[in-house]
């Protein structure tokens, strides 16, 4: 199962509340937040950090519950996350390898996807489509599909873009692998690597009006959605 946490950052725009919630995140996250030059970026980074913290606490609670009937029972509720950032910028939890996560933000929302396997997530606000970008980064058949969707072109472009972004975040190789090296299929909910033929699952979520969210994982899993108030 993949847990998908979503929250609005609107409340964090109030300075005193921002400072209050800033004290709830780890020192490493706090440093990352304060390194951001723009207030909106600081707010989004804090919102993402709060979602990650919520996911971590919930994970630890489930781990403790699973150990209740074993002789290995121990108090792990205070365990801190040990994060390592690899050469491509993807974060990994070193002390709990089965705690895999990915963060994203756009507009007024932040999202966190958490699973026991590698996962990638992306959220994008639906805006007017730029066909030049689609022509440059999409495969010919993807671009053709977009052109046939004249009535809903903005949403379709956003769906395809979030699927692509979630995939490169899933693989951890980032944009360097090229958005035209794999094909997205909105109807079947999958992404196919053109060189290897390998296919992975990518689930679209349109739970927030005006936004699209894509969650990518190696195998198809149930996505459990949870809206949080920060």
SSE blueprint:
Blueprint lengths: L1 E7 L6 H8 L4 H9 L3 H28 L16 E3 L5 E3 L6 E7 L2 E7 L3 E7 L5 H7 L2 H9 L4 H19 L10 E4 L4 E4 L5 E7 L5 E7 L5 E6 L2
Parallel strand pairs: 1-11
Antiparallel strand pairs: 1-5, 2-3, 4-5, 6-10, 7-8, 8-9, 9-10
Helix pairs in contact: 2-3, 5-6
Write up this protein.
- This protein is of the alpha+beta class.
- Helix content is 35%, strand content 27%.
- The chain folds into 2 domains: 1-116, 4'-phosphopantetheinyl transferase domain (Ribosomal Protein L22, Chain A), CATH 3.90.470.20; 118-218, Alpha-Beta Complex (Ribosomal Protein L22, Chain A), CATH 3.90.470.
- The protein is globular.
- The two termini are 23 Å apart.
Give the helix tally. 6
**Can you give the mean pLDDT?**
91
The order of strands across the largest sheet is 6-10-9-8-7
User: What is the N-to-C order of secondary-structure elements (H for helix, E for strand)?
Assistant: EHHHEEEEEHHHEEEEE
Work out the number of β strands.
11
What spatial form do the alpha-carbon principal axes imply? Answer: globular
Strand content: 25-35%
In brief:
The protein has 230 residues and is α+β, with helices and mostly antiparallel strands. Helix content is 35%, strand content 27%.
Provide tags for this entry:
single chain; 230 residues; alpha+beta; Ribosomal Protein L22, Chain A; 4-stranded mixed β-sheet; 6 helices; globular
